[in-house]
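Before surveying the methods themselves, let us examine one representative protein, pairing a chain with its fold in C-alpha cell form.
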Amino acid sequence: MTNRQMLRTMVPAVAAGAVCAVTLAWGQEAKPAAAAKPAVPSVLPGKGLAQHDFFYAGEAKTEDMYIVRKGKIAWEYHDPAGKGEISDAVMLSNGSVLFAHQFGIKLIDKNKKTLWSYDAPAGTEIHTAQPIGKDLVLYVQNGDPAKVVVVNIATGKKVREFEVPVRNPKSVHGHFRHARLTDAGTLLVAHMDLNKVVEYDSNGKSLWSYQVDGGLWSAERLKNGNTLVSGGKSVREVNPSGNTVWEFTSADVPDYLFNSIQIAQRLPTGNTIVNTWFNSWNGTADAATAAVQALELTPDKKIVWALHAWGPGVNLGPSTTIQLLDQPSTPEAVHFGDLK
C-alpha cells in the first residue's frame, strides 16, 4: 500500500471517531494527547474551611465577600450592581467592612448597610484602602497624578494628600494595588508599574525602597523590621538592606498550580499565608480543576493548609485577601505620622 493509499484509508476511521493506534506512513505511532496535569493534589493538607475562621474577598467580575466560621459561611455580601473588582478589604473590630472596589471605596456595617462611600473621580481608580481609628480612611488613588489621600469620613474633608510617582500616568489601571501602614506610622506602597516598594512618611517623603525583579502586588512590614513582598510567582522577605532572608516561589510547590500571587501575610505563629488569584475574566473556574485559593506555609515551606473552595457546596470565588479571625484584633488601631 502506498503512503497516499494508507492515509486515504485512515480518514474515514478518524472522521467516524474511531479510537485506535494507527501507524503513519513514516512508521511513527500516533499517540493520544497527554492528560493535563492536575492543578492540586488529590488529598489536601489541613481541615479545609474549618482550618481557621476568616474573612475573605477577591478580585472578580462580581463584588463578593464572605466570613467563614467553624467551616461554614456565617456572613456573605454580594452587590449585583457593584462595578469594579474588590482588590482590598478589611473587617474592623466592630464587624464593619471597609473595601476598595476599583471605582471607589465603601464602608458597610455587619448588616450590610452602607455607612460611607466615596466614588473615584473619572479617569482614576482605587484599589487599596485602610482605616485609621474611627474616622479616618487612607487610600491610594491611581490617576494622573496618582495620590495618597487621608479623608475624615465624618466630615468628608481630606486631611492629608500627596502625589506619588508612576511610570505611565495615562496607564491608570496598572499603577497600584496594595499599600499598608507600618507600626512606625509610615506607609509601604507597592508601585506595581515601577516594580518597586517605597516607604513614605505622612508628608510624602520617601524613606526606603526596594526594587523587585518580577511581579509586584503587595508589601507589608513585619514585626522583625523586614518586609514581605509578593506578586507574580514569588513571595520574598527582605531585610532593611534589601537582602533576601526567606523566599517562596511556585517552584516550591510543584504539585500545585500557583502562579498568580497577590497578597502574602505573616501570621503570629510564624507561618505565612499566600493566595493565588484566578482570573474570572478568562472564564469560569471548574471546581474539579481549579487551583487552590491559598496555602499556609511553615517557615521551612511545609504546607499545613490548602484552601480549595470552588464548589459544589461552598464557592468563595477568586482569592485576593484572607483575614484570619481566630483571635480578636483591631485593624483600625494604626497611625500615619500624626494622624490617628
User: Anything to note?
Assistant: Confidence is low (pLDDT under 50) at residues 1-29.
